[in-house]
Amino acid sequence: MTRSRTDPTGAVVGGRTLEVACDESGSDGENLTTGNTDVFAHGSVLLPMGAASAYVQEVRDRIRSPAEEYKANILLREKHRAVLQWYLGPSGPIHGHAHVHLTEKPFFVVDRVVALLTDEGPGIAVALHRQGRAVFGSERWREFLEVSNDLLRTRKNEDAESPVEPFFRTVDALRRARSGEPVGAILDLLARGRARADAHRARILAGPELFPVLNPLMPAIVHTSAYWRRAGLPVTLVHDRQNMLTEERIARIEDRARLAGLRLVPAGEDPRILLADFLAGTARKIASDELNGRGDPELTTLLRPYVSGSSVWGDERSWAALGPDTDRTWRL
What we know:
Strands 1, 2, 3, 4, 5 and 6 form a six-stranded mixed β-sheet that branches. The chain has two domains: 12-103 and 212-322, Nucleotidyltransferase, domain 5; 106-206, no CATH class. It is globular. The chain is built from 14 helices and six strands. Strand 1 and strand 2 form a beta hairpin. It has helices at residues 49-63, 72-75, 81-88, 105-117, 122-136, 138-152, 164-177, 182-191, 194-206, 217-228, 247-256, 271-291, 297-303, 316-322; strands at residues 12-13, 17-25, 39-45, 98-104, 235-239, 261-264. Helix 1 packs across helix 12. With 332 residues, the protein is an alpha/beta fold. 49% of the residues lie in helices and 10% in strands. This is DUF3800 domain-containing protein.
């Protein structure tokens, strides 16, 4: 691989295009409220193939596991904590060469339903998300998240009740219960969005959506591309295989994200994707622990330099620990 003068790592292809490897962790499709995880993480790494291969081997040498396939869960084992600290730390292999975009799934649902049903900005979604559980209680708030998820997702079942009815029944019940609360005004806005909800379901019944509203992968890829394009060079993404990334969607993502290209490669065939997997998987767990009040301060501090300022995150307390202090730069 030819190295450019501005890229001592050799990660610039032909001195013209950045080739960035990506992987994700925490994908539950469009089930964002009752799935296995409450955080989605999209990791990306900018390193040349040779260096990435050497770093993957160093991870194996440090862990000394007989497993043939190494994934992030190995690094998350307590007995391998020192390896994880090295991997994420300032002297580790990806420091300054990697980035992770986080999505807090419950907030993503709230943000998407507010965007669908109103013309208000994201501040309304943040306010509803931050106050909802405390005002309505855990059970009622969970019900609101679930009916919102059902309203937005592309699942089709013509024999089942339309998800529009349960959603607005739930919104009306919450309005009656807490009409005097500040969030009551937000629910009033949602209650006026019945025509938009019906139109959304009609579009779903009419045919498959190119970009499902509730899947966090596509917006994460767009944000990842924007981050790496800050160098002023064209960007190509090399991504682990993902069923959501059909040829048609890849073409639209390339256009929307202004990518020079996006191609799918099995993780086992590209060590750079394995490094991105290590980052995405460990970031998802560290961020989820922080979100749920059981954060590990040392690991959170190590993760923070990688976290995207454009992450989709509504919880104020955990973001204060996870979010970047400034718009951090990275080195080629």
